[in-house]
What we know:
The complex is a heterodimer of chains A (235) and B (317). Chain A is mainly α and 235 residues long. Chain A has 10 helices and no strands. Chain A has helices at 3-28, 39-68, 74-99, 103-106, 117-127, 129-146, 150-156, 158-164, 166-180, 189-217. In chain B, a hairpin with a 5-residue loop joins strand 2 (102-107) and strand 3 (113-116). The two termini of chain B are 16 Å apart.
Amino acid sequence: MTQRSVVAIKLAIWAGCLAPLVLLVLAAAGIYGSLGANDVETVLNVCGKTGLNLLVLTLCITPIRRSTGINQLVVFRRLLGLFAFFYVCLHFLTYALLDLGLLFPLLGLPTASGLAPGEQLLADIAERPFITVGFTALVLLIPLAATSTRAMQRRLKRNWVKLHRLVYVIAVLGLVHYWWQIKSAADVTEPVLYALVLAMLLGVRIRHTLVNAKAAVAPSYQSVEPPQAHEKTGH
Amino acid sequence: MHKRVDTGIKPSEITPESAFVNRRTLLTAAVAAGIIPSIMSCEAATIPTGGVFDDVKKWSGSATEKANTFEEITSYNNFYEFGTGKSDPAENAHTLKTSPWSVQVSGAAAKTGTFTLEDILKPHALEERIYRLRCVEAWSMVIPWVGFPLGDLLKRFEPTSEAKYVQFLSLADRTQMPGVRYPVLEWPYREGYTIAEAVHPLAFVAVGVYGKVMPNQNGAPIRTVMPWKYGFKSCKSIVRIHFTDKQPQTSWNMAAPNEYGFYSNVNPQVDHPRWSQASERRLGGGLFAPRIPTQMYNGYADQVASLYTGLDLAKNY
Lengths: 235, 317
């Protein structure tokens, strides 16, 4: 991959990742499209879904890198991961500030009598399992986002890899969070699809680890990491 | 699987014996005196071909809050027979054929059989009632329905003393309703109330919204509206009414009995197992509209609380 194609792909990722937000803003401003009758719910769902989609995409990078040998793909992984974090944050902020209305006490504005958004938020996180799970996923994403820089990667060495394996746990928590809030237990086509994709990605990952472990005990085999020679040098 | 819950309400409590005995004399006298217009002189309710009802009286008890727009009411619906997404019913319900339509009446009643929609509507005078609608998902709307009291309809079938409950069944035709192909709920959709609830003056049969014929996505051509209960307790596109002495099965209760009880009265103190019911988002207020506190029985406590005297509302959710 040339430097130019890396830049082009990065620009495409920026455009693709910002598109849902831009569409939400345009709809909220009444310029293009509409947020529908339940505007807060629409923002909440779009941000949550985009966050989950980007998490899954992030998880796809390593298997694709391994099977194609294009090691530069790793630079896109960071970008996708950070956008996933961005949308998960927006999802949480929409819930806390707009849905529960924490925005109003934060701005010093009155809330309807009997409602205490701050207390409600804490109670939800503590007592509503699907919110507890979702909030845990968000919290776990913070150290990953904070250590996503190349400098941190170098500093943490092998621990960085171990730490960032958390992304699998986070994706599973995100899926559970999504699954758990669906009203009808039978209406789970979408979460089942996510689960299948996640299971496949986890399976590929586990298979790779097992094969690697075998290679380590059998010295006659070379590492199955794609050799550098296979890397495309561009044309 | 359903729990038998005894409301402790005897038929004699629903209809005081004195009223029962004197009803005919009173009615005859009232009609003669012109207090109650006789059925013959009454404007016969029909589904207008032009789509707009022309003689709809305003009910004095209507909610005073700002009603949601026709667009909001008809674009954001839970009607799983047309898909589980909120916009699915508006997109898919055009395939529903509402004419001809008939309703089968069965069970513990003197007058059972199949009635055309025209038969069902004929004797009733239509009125507009603006009711709050609180969904179990913690959002709410304010909707101007067109219809008539459910009790007026049910009494015409002369339910017997065996009739402790009434069950309503929705149409479940997969050729007209694409969502019925998926087993997301027990089809046909079924709902039920105690007779006392069903004949309560607030219990309503709706055939329109905003003076117009009921849009398909809102449960055309005929649906129930129980304003003090969560929205799913309404039964849309009704094809069957069944009077019974046993608590009837209800689709959501069958799907998740620990989450959706038979009563499902709006109650801010009894949370859904997965989320709080203390407050609600009134749709139409914009992104920055704060939630509002949910009211006991959706604000109809003065009228309906007496139906549940002595009932443990935490157990009978």
